[in-house]
Design brief:
By secondary structure, the chain is of the alpha+beta class. Helices cover 20% and strands 22% of the residues. The chain has a domain at 47-119. It has four helices and six strands.
């Protein structure tokens, strides 16, 4: 698989960004201390769009002698594409008199339940556009707010042209990987790692 700089018509020294990894925080009481990790890129190992929510570890275990750190956290995954669905992975006691914990996974797959794949996102939007239905379209005030959040990041990247180090420096990665190895350190600051679908 070709990388971006290897594509026909692309400058082999291009500094066009094809990958981003972010750690975000929401500044309110409800989400205080909860990190949000986002990553996106071109030519990654697999095409997948998902939202993975890793729950915090329990502060104590009611299943003695298991300690809280012995129990992996529960995980909720919302699969957006290409396999639309929802998966919930929890720790549960297996039936019976012995204390045996195991992973229980509950899954909903759109294709399996309804017997067909949902339309692609753009197919739906184009149909809505032709029908004059604006329900799924972004409003101008939402777009303005999104740009106010992204503009400082884009401005920082513009200053990167001369910087070869720092958080906004361009990091190269091979096509077919999960991105630059430098991105692996980002969630490590919170003692977690990227989820690999």
């Amino acid at each position: 698989m070709k990388g971006y700089r290897e594509e026909t018509g692309v400058d082999p020294e291009s500094t066009t960004e094809t990958y981003a990894a972010l750690r975000l925080a929401i500044d309110n009481w409800r989400w205080q201390g909860v990190p949000f990790y986002l990553r996106s890129g071109k030519r990654l190992k697999r095409r997948v769009t998902e939202i993975a929510i890793t729950f915090r570890n329990v502060p104590h275990s009611i299943f003695r002698p298991l300690r809280p750190e012995d129990l992996p956290p529960n995980l909720l995954v919302l699969n957006v594409q290409p396999e639309e669905g929802i998966s919930l992975r929890i720790q549960a006691k297996r039936p019976g008199p012995k204390l045996c914990m195991g992973r229980l996974t509950m899954e909903f797959r759109y294709r399996e339940v309804f017997g067909a794949a949902p339309p692609e996102a753009y197919e739906r939007l184009l149909l809505d556009c032709m029908l004059g239905d604006q329900t799924l379209f972004a409003r101008h005030d939402n777009i303005r707010l999104a740009w106010s959040l992204l503009a400082p990041i884009l401005d920082e990247w513009q200053g990167r042209e001369t910087a070869s180090s720092g958080p906004s420096a361009l990091r190269l990665y091979p096509a077919g990987s999960w991105g630059p190895t430098a991105a692996d350190a980002l969630p490590g600051t919170d003692g977690v790692q990227w989820r690999t679908p």
